[in-house]
Amino acid sequence: MFEPLTDGDEKYRKRREIVFIILSNYVYKMVSALVDSIPFYMGTRFLSRYLNIDPVRDYKVGKKG
Fold first, then answer.
1. Model pTM?
2. pLDDT digits (tens, 9 = 90+) for 21-62
């Protein structure tokens, strides 16, 4: 019914290429998300100190009301 795929088979090569493309896209998304998130965390921390914003206090005030 189905023939096993071997290293020299064209279908096997194409499947490997497709899997490689899919996995490399996931790795790219993960790395870019990590690189992109770090400046935002640092910026949020800097701005909250600069603007004297206490997110814990604001959260507690919001829960009471």
1. 0.53
2. 999 999 999 999 999 998 988 998 898 889 888 877 767 766
Give 59's Cβ-side CA count (13 Å radius).
Answer: 3
Residue with tokens 């997110």: 55
Cβ contacts of 12 within 8 Å, gap of 6 or more: 5, 6
CB 5 within 8 A of CB 15: yes
Joined together, the tokens standing for residue 23 give 């996995």
Q: Which two tokens stand for residue 38?
A: 């770090």
Inter-residue contact 5 to 12 (CB < 8 Å): yes
Give the phi and the psi of residue 37 in degrees, each rounded to 5: -75, -35
